[in-house]
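Page 37, continued from 36.
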């Protein structure tokens, strides 16, 4: 890139980096990387404060581009170079850049499967941001907390991850910025999932409820979607715990609250609730099948109604088609079952076949062997 002889070094560096940022936003990371390297090569040894800010920006953007290109070793080297050059600086204007470098280093360490070092780097970010108040610093702080919790989970240190999630929720669930409230909601969802993994189901259910309690009145779409997702997950967990009546109340609550929403993301959650309700009823019908056949068939018909309602909303949903096929099979509609299952496999591929084969193992009944044979034949 040609340099303008009339421009100051700061203007030249800023112009090149602005173009690099545009390329990055377009996903052209290789080209952006080359421009960042030009700035580092031209101005890396400068002592002019304003130009040094552009150099740290170039190193930050270089690390980001390398992370996006899945070149974590090089990204790590870029981060370490930035920290070597600027890590000891007390310049407040460099603070944000250095924190971003540390967060990209976390990403690279995650890509390399080095979570122990990742936790240490997250702790360094948290130390540097202690007492942060402005929006950008709060965003970086929330990201560091969430990444630390993920690293701890990866290490199997779940009990240590739980208070990190709690800290993020404490700090940001009432933040004025919607995206930070969204981070708090995500953190609660992670926590609920983690508690379920630990077998602490009542706490998991309560944490899903907490998402609704804290954010159920939000108008922001992303938060409303997260609330709907939490309610579906809670109802699904109740179904897994064989608390079918409570699960159905939970699924119906999602449908009642969001069925008329025009936004596709919320409509999808309603479809998930209907299909999951149908699946919970299908499992309950199979549980009753050996001893109470007449009641089982009644429950199976209720399952059919929920799954049909799903397909009315989303006609090509593979998992719903698979559930419809399973229900049709148990109701004796074998040709229809074959047609529905074939369509589910056509749209959803082998993952649908594997899911259906696994589902057939829930509350096994003699008819399941024929059902598995039908699935394998398609």
């Amino acid at each position: 890139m040609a340099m303008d002889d009339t421009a100051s070094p700061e203007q030249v560096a800023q112009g090149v980096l602005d173009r690099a940022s545009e390329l990055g936003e377009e996903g052209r990371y290789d080209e952006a990387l080359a421009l960042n390297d030009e700035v580092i090569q031209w101005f890396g040894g400068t002592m002019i404060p304003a130009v040094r800010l552009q150099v740290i920006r170039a190193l930050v953007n270089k690390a980001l581009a390398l992370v996006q290109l899945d070149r974590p070793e090089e990204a790590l080297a870029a981060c370490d170079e930035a920290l070597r050059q600027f890590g000891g600086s007390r310049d407040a204007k460099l603070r944000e850049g250095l924190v971003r470098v540390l967060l990209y280093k976390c990403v690279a360490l995650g890509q390399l499967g080095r979570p122990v070092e990742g936790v240490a780097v997250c702790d360094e970010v948290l130390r540097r941001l202690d007492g942060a108040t402005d929006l950008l610093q709060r965003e970086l702080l929330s990201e560091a907390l969430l990444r630390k919790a993920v690293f701890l989970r990866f290490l199997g240190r779940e009990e240590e991850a739980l208070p990190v999630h709690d800290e993020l929720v404490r700090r940001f669930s009432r933040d004025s910025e919607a995206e930070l409230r969204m981070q708090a909601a995500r953190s609660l969802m992670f926590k609920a999932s983690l508690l379920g993994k630990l077998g602490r189901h009542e706490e998991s259910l309560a944490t899903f409820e907490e998402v609704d309690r804290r954010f159920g009145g939000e108008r922001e779409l992303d938060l409303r979607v997260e609330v709907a997702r939490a309610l579906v997950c809670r109802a699904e967990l109740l179904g897994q715990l064989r608390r079918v009546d409570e699960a159905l109340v939970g699924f119906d609550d999602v449908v009642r609250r969001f069925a008329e929403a025009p936004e596709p993301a919320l409509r999808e959650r309603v479809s998930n609730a209907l299909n999951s309700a149908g699946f919970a009823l299908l499992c309950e019908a199979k549980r009753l099948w050996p001893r109470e056949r007449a009641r089982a068939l009644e429950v199976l018909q209720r399952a059919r109604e929920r799954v049909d309602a799903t397909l009315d909303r989303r006609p090509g949903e593979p998992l719903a088609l698979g559930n419809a096929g399973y229900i049709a099979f148990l109701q004796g509609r074998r040709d229809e079952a074959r047609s529905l299952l074939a369509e589910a496999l056509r749209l959803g591929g082998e993952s649908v076949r594997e899911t259906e084969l696994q589902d057939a193992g829930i509350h096994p009944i003699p008819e399941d062997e024929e059902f598995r044979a039908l699935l394998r034949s398609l």
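The chain is about 80% helix and 0% strand. Flag for discussion at group meeting. Residues 264-288 form the longest helix (25 residues).
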